[in-house]
Amino acid sequence: MNETTPVRTDGTRVSGPEPAAAGSTTPRPTAGSAPARVRLAGLVQRQGVLAVLLAVVLIASYVYPTFATLDNARGVTVQASFLAVVALGMTLVIISGGIDLSVGSVFALGGVLAAWASQWGLLPALLVPLVVCGGIGLINGLLVARAGMAPFIVTLATLLAARGLLLAVTDEGATTYLVPKDSAFAALGQGSVGGFGHPVLIALALFGAGGLLLQRTSFGQTLFAVGGSDDAATLMGLPVARTKILVYTLSGLLAGLAGALSAARLSSGVTIVGVGMELDAISAVVIGGTLLIGGAGTVSGTLWGVLLLAVIQNLINQIGSLNSSYQSVVSGGFLIVVVVAQRYLARGREST
Question: How confident is the model over 159-191, as pLDDT tens digits?
Fold first, then answer.
C-alpha cells in the first residue's frame, strides 16, 4: 500500500507535518475561558440590578439620614408592593415573548370592582375583580395564541376597553365606591405583621410562588422554550398556545389582585390610578434583567427592579426640591442603559 508523502512547492518531499508559515500564530483555547465569560455575562444580566440597588441604598442612607429608618422602609415597600404584583405577571408575559399593555387599566378596574363589592364582605371583594380581570387576561391570551394577533395591538385594545368599563361602572368617574371601615377587606390592605403591611407580605409570597413556578415546574421550562422560539417549542411538542393563554390570564389576575389590595389600602376605588402603570411594570421587568425578546428572565430580578424604582421615587421625595416627574427621567435613563447592556451581553455570549 503506497502512502502519499507531502510535497513542498519547490518539489522536495517532507516526511513530517508541514511547518507553520513564519509569523503565523494558532490561537490556543483556554480551558473554561468561554464558559466563564458566558456565566459572568449571565450573572450581570440577572443580578446587576441588585448591585445597583444596594449601591443606591447605601449612598442614600449616608446622604439622607431619614432614608435609613424603619418607618421609611415600611412606606417604600408598601408603595412598591402593588407595582410588584403587576410586574410579576408582566414578567411571565415578557418571558413568553409577549407584552401586556392593559395591566394599568385592569389594575384600576380591579380596585373599583373590589371597592364596590366590599359591601358584601371580603370574599366578594376579592372574587369579583379576580373573575373580571382574569377574564380580560383570558381574552388577551386567546386572541394572541389562537387568533395569532399581535400582543401589542390586542392588549392596547383591552387597555381601552378596561378603562371604558371602569368609567361605565363609576358613571364617568362621578361615583367613588368606599370600602366599609373596620371590614375584613380594609384590614387586608391596612393591617400589618411585624410592622410591614399585608400587601408587602402578599407580594413576597407571590414572588416566591412565581420563582418556584419558573424554576421548578415543567410549565416554567415550557415558558422559557416558548419565549425562545415558538417554532422550536412547537416541534418539541410543547403546548405553546395553552402556555400563552395561561400567562396572559395570570397577568390579568395579578393586576386585578393588585388593584383590589390598593383599594383596600386606600379605602376606596380610585378611578384615576393605574395611568402609565404598564410602562412602570415593563421598566421594572427589563431593568431586572428579563429580555424583551423573551426566553430569559427571573422574578427576583423583577423584584429588585421594582424596589429600585421605588427607592428612586423616595429619594426624589427626600430631596424635596424635585418633583415626581424626575422619576420618569431617571427610570427612562436606567431603562436605556439596561437595554444597551443586554444587547452587549447577548453579543458577547453569541461570540463565544
Answer: 999 999 999 999 887 888 999 988 899 999 998
Sign of CA dihedral 223, 225, 227, 233: negative
What's the whole-model pTM score?
0.83
For residue 56, what is its C-alpha cell?
Answer: 443606591
CA–CA gap between residue 335 and residue 343 (Å, rounded)? 12
* C-alpha to C-alpha distance for 299 and 82, rounded to whole angstroms: 15
The alpha-carbon radius of gyration of the chain (Å, integer) is 26
Model pLDDT for residues 71-98, shown as the tens digit of each residue: 888 989 999 999 999 999 999 999 999 9
Q: Retrieve residue 167's grid coordinates.
A: 368609567
Pairing of strands 196-197, 192-193: antiparallel
Which residues are CB-neighbours of 348 under 8 A, at least 6 positions away?
A: 37, 38, 41
Helices (H), the chain: 33-63, 70-95, 103-117, 122-145, 151-169, 184-190, 198-216, 218-228, 230-235, 240-266, 277-287, 299-319, 325-351
For residues 307 and 286, what is the distance between their CA atoms, to the nearest angstrom? 13
Q: Among 242, 278, 312, 288, which residue's Cα sits nearest to residue 158?
A: 278
- Amino acid 211 reads G
> For residues 284 and 153, what is the distance between their CA atoms, to the nearest angstrom?
22
| pLDDT per residue as tens digits for the range 16-59 | 444 444 444 444 444 444 566 556 555 555 567 888 888 888 98
Q: Do the Cβ atoms of 232 and 239 come closer than 8 Å? A: no
